[in-house]
Amino acid sequence: MRNPEAEAVTSPRTGRRPLADQALEHRFAAVRERLVVLCASLVGPADAEDIVQDVYLVARARIDQLRDPSAFEGWLRRIAVNRCYGHHRRRARLTGLVGDLRARSGERDLDLRELVERLPPRERTILVLHYGHGYRLDEIADLLSLSHTNVRSIVARTRRRLAAAWREDAP
């Protein structure tokens, strides 16, 4: 039996087969609601849609890694669970950071967002990518075309700057 996907011409722009992209979208749409329910049970309904969208993007980027097409839904579920775990890790890290600052501040209302927004754009971007979105420092370095050492230094310097600004705002 002929397999049109195997015979499709690879697009020079994307390096992918157009029919493979259509098949991915069709198959993903068929399991999307089950993924939303799974993610909602792990992270709550408010964040489930965003995580499922991330799952789609990861699946689209890594579809060539799927060896057994019959395992497609299980493969997507595994990606979804990993994304949900990552979501919890990022939230715990951010809550821990904010919780420590609040614990030290006593009754004072700390507006961390305002302090972060006062930072220069590059430092703010790196800090938000790392603590807010959970990117590793080497990933941020690749995204911003910086060295890993430079990104690590910027994070350390920014944390010191935030701590100093926080102390200045103390009553």
CATH class of the largest domain: Mainly Alpha
Helix content: over 70%
Give the DSSP E fraction (strand runs of 2 or more residues): under 5%
Structural class: mainly alpha
For the record, what is the CATH homologous superfamily label of the largest domain? RNA polymerase sigma factor, region 2, helix turn helix motif
Q: In angstroms, what is the radius of gyration?
A: 21 Å
Tell me what the CATH architecture of the largest domain is: Orthogonal Bundle
Alpha plus pi helix count:
8
Structure characterization notes:
The protein is an all-alpha fold and 171 residues long. The chain has two domains: 15-87, Orthogonal Bundle (Rna Polymerase Sigma Factor, Chain: A); 111-171, Winged helix-like DNA-binding domain superfamily/Winged helix DNA-binding domain (Arc Repressor Mutant, subunit A). The protein is 75% helix and 0% strand. It has eight helices and no strands. Helix 2 packs antiparallel against helix 3 and helix 2 crosses helix 4 (72-105). The chain is elongated. Mean pLDDT is 78; it is low at 1-12.
Short description:
By secondary structure, this protein is an all-alpha fold. The protein is built from eight helices and no strands.
Features:
2 domains; Arc Repressor Mutant, subunit A; mainly alpha; 171 residues; 8 helices; single chain; elongated; disordered N terminus
SSE map:
Layout lengths: L3 H4 L10 H26 L1 H18 L9 H34 L6 H6 L3 H12 L4 H8 L3 H21 L3
Helix pairs in contact: 2-3, 2-4, 3-4, 6-8, 7-8
